[in-house]
Specification:
The chain is an alpha+beta fold and 99 residues long. It has 3 helices and 3 strands; from the N terminus they run αββαβα. It has a 3-stranded mixed beta sheet. The longest helix is centred in the first third of the chain and has 14 residues. It is elongated.
């Protein structure tokens, strides 16, 4: 059975191995085999990839995720923008919605 320190090193190595993950922005803590990922990433795919990478490591009993997704300013949308986009999509539909 791996120690928490060994498990932490293995998870960090797995995160660094994947080029789609910015491992420098993610902290890894382990207590009794439970891994906690903390920090921030630039998109939801990176967060998902980090979660999956940690779960691939043999010996991980459970995973807690305390990562924030900080989208670049160019990708952020206000609620009003989202509502307008949804309304426009509905206006352009050629098939009526059924009840």
């Amino acid at each position: 059975m791996k120690t928490d320190t060994q498990l932490q090193q293995d998870v960090m190595a797995e995160l660094r191995w994947n080029p789609a993950i910015d491992a420098e922005q993610i902290g890894v803590e382990v207590k009794d085999g439970v891994v906690t990922l903390a920090g921030h990433v630039d998109n939801y795919l990176c967060k998902y990839n980090a979660e999956q990478a940690a779960l691939r490591v043999y010996g991980v009993k459970a995973l807690a995720v305390e990562m924030d997704v900080r989208l670049p300013a160019t990708s952020q949308r206000s609620d009003a923008d989202i509502a307008r986009t949804a309304r426009n999509a509905l206006d352009w539909m050629t098939t009526p919605l059924s009840d």
